[in-house]
Amino acid sequence: MQNVLNNSTFRILNSALIVALLFSSCKKSAADMPKLHFKVEAKCPVTPVKNQGRSQTCWIYAMLATIESNRIAMGDSVNLSPTFLERMLLQKEAEKVYNSKGKEKITLRGMIPYCMQLIDEYGAFNFDSYYCKNKEFSMKETINKLQSIAEETAGKKGESIEKLRRKTKELLDNEISFLPKNQFFLGAGYTPQEFGNSVALYEHYEFLGADYNFPDRRKSDKITKTSPAQMLEKVEQSVRKGYAVCWEGDISEDGFCWEAGLAIDPLLLPHEGEGNSHKENAADFNKRYEEGIENDDTTDDHCLEICGIAHDQHGRKYFVCKNSWGISNRYKGFLFMSFDYFLTKTILIGKLKDNYFFSASVKLEDV
Question: Least buried of 82, 219, 319, 360, by fewest C-beta within 10 Å?
């Protein structure tokens, strides 16, 4: 596969309305945030920014973006379809409702390890081979329709799960778009499983963070308990080698402002400050992190791709992150997350295992 990064190759999902979370996660306006200037030290290759619209599947978008960057770093470029995995999840959730006799509810919420499980189970599609063609598509309405179908099928004596699958396929074909059995990519044909196996497997990645029973965590999610300082070290090492990392954490803080493209420690908001305080006060950061998790002050809100490292005019370090809310903010879909913010508000990271690293060049840029 060749590196294909021409924007015209991709059909990026644009939406006139930005996710409601976008507005609620920016309690302060850009004018209230510190005036910072950044120098990018290391940057991983990336694919174009997507827009998840009103879906709750940021964990799919961020994990796929991470896989895409890492495939490019290996010299093998792909642009993956979030819509395909969303569809597979809808089917899986409908069967969950059926098997519970209508007691369960469909949900698209999850954590980043679950994205890899879906790829292992269902495979993957290239973005150009499967995307939503319905301009009037509403995920909420589709979920409501599918919930009703699953409950109705479960409630009728003698209605088999095969009938539910036929009804589900018909609904999703109409609401999203027809799903082909195979796909063609760069002249070769692939089944979803073949394509998924060629780009990423669960066993290639490790998930490190707070081993805690978060509301969105699925029973099958495997997380290795890791301290914030250890996570930060592993992310920095990975990015400097040219490999992206998936981030999951809290964006409900005053220090997170999408409009300004910033995620900084709220304690730094009144003034710009100086120095790398995470090195000076590691014990304090760890205490704040543990208390935030235990007291539910740190919430599992959103997922991003970490694809770079930068520093500001005061020498403070940041991760460059790619979001899935379109290109409407100051940095055209990207934001700068301070190391301080990472240390207190990270729940989980997903990264390539060290033995899957290959050599990769890192382009240096200024922002």
Answer: 219
Find the helix or strand (DSSP H, E) in which 348 lies. Answer: strand 346-352
Dump pLDDT digits (tens) for 59-116. 999 999 999 999 999 998 899 999 999 999 999 999 999 999 999 999 999 999 999 9
Produce one character per residue of 22-52: b if its CB has 16 or more CB atoms within 10 Å, e if not: beebbebeeeebbebebebbbbbbbbbbbbb
pLDDT on residue 282: 61
pTM over 0.90: no
Q: Which helix (H) or strand (E) holds 56?
A: none
| DSSP-assigned letter for residue 322 | E
DSSP letters, 175-240, are HT----S-EEETTEEE-HHHHHHHH--GGGEEEEE-----TT--TT---EE--HHHHHHHHHHHHH
CB of 311 within 8 A of CB of 274? no
**Residue 20 pLDDT > 50:** no
Which residues have a Cβ under 8 Å from the Cβ of 281 and sit 6 or more positions away? none
What are the structure tokens assigned to 9, written together? 């190759």
Q: Record the tokens describing residue 109, joined without a space.
A: 């919420």
